[in-house]
Amino acid sequence: MATALVNTDFNFPNQTGVYHGKVRDVYSIGSDTLVMIATDRISAFDVILPKGIPYKGQVLNEIATYFLDSTADIVPNWKLATPDPMAAVGIRCEGFRVEMIIRGYLTGSAWREYQAGCRELCGVKLPEGMRENERFPEPIITPTTKADAGHDENISREEIITQGIVSAEDYAIMEDYTRKLFARGTQMAAEKGLILVDTKYEFGKHDGKVYLIDEIHTPDSSRYFYADGYEERFEKGLPQRQLSKEFVRQWLIDHGFMGKEGQQVPEMTDEFIQSVSDRYIELYEQVTGQPFVKASESNLADRIAVNVLDCLQNINR
Question: Rounded to 10 degrees, what is the CA torsion of 234, 239, 244, 247?
Fold first, then answer.
């Protein structure tokens, strides 16, 4: 079993703070620069699972880099450089406390709510008579509040603006960017024989300007179906072949875990961990059309530290 990086404890020059997220560790350098390390941690139902997934961090970081570079003509983004397979360096933005989730198909948590009788999601009316994995007439935006801990909460556009979480002007910009990014992601996925089902985007502000921040179109933030066979499987009511983290959630559900109080995370065997790693690598190759090159797994932390330090020195010259 390959090595997984699940914790980091760097001390970079001029470091002013660190935030350990569910998957990423974000280091503040001075007042304007961030170093984002994509670890091999994996979370589901807002719970960090007890074991890491080898190469997951590299997959996430390199897919995010690929799509940030491919959408820079649509929206300015935070990334300045990718000095290491598991690290990115970029502009520090003041993040909005909202995640912009956009859905092209009725699946996942939205389907579970629909199945339970819900016909309105985040202020968006849902048509009657829809079936699991059915395409919406138009993609819908279902934002959530961004929680420091615990579960993110669904919220409507009107509530976001009324509560002053985001101004009406900034929200309109975020909404416009979200639809344009999803359209580009949909187009790029289709070229690779995939369907971009749903995804989330995060935005922040720097010097009065809205930026795209964090990851984009990765398996942790997005769900993909294989286009081949989609219609046939949908008509027969069969599960779709998909590339996303949903299979991990489904495995947990099948083993009696949904992140609820009192539930125990099932044992993650070496075989299961390897299968998850393989699925992440498969998704990388599918969505980028490029072979995945495994970076050296020896002395991961030392390698990242050296590469990031060199990048920061070049930026500050």
Answer: 170
Per-residue pLDDT tens over the stretch 216-229: 999 888 999 999 99
Give which of 107, 114, 126 is closest to 240, Cα–Cα: 107
The CA distance from 62 to 38, in Å, is 10
Considering only CA atoms, which of 199, 187, 259, 249 is closest in space to residue 224? 199
Backbone phi, psi, residue 3, to 5°: -75, 140
Q: Which pLDDT band holds residue 293 (cuts at 50, 70, 90)?
A: very high
Burial class (CB in 10 A: 0-12, 13-18, 19+), 89: buried
DSSP assignments along 142-198, one per residue: --EE--SSS--EE--HHHHHHTTSS-HHHHHHHHHHHHHHHHHHHHHHHHTTEEEEE
The enclosing H or E element of 58 equals helix 56-70
The pLDDT value given to residue 160: 96
* SS3 state of residue 283: helix
Helix (H) or strand (E) holding 303: helix 300-315
Calpha distance 4→101 (Å, rounded): 29
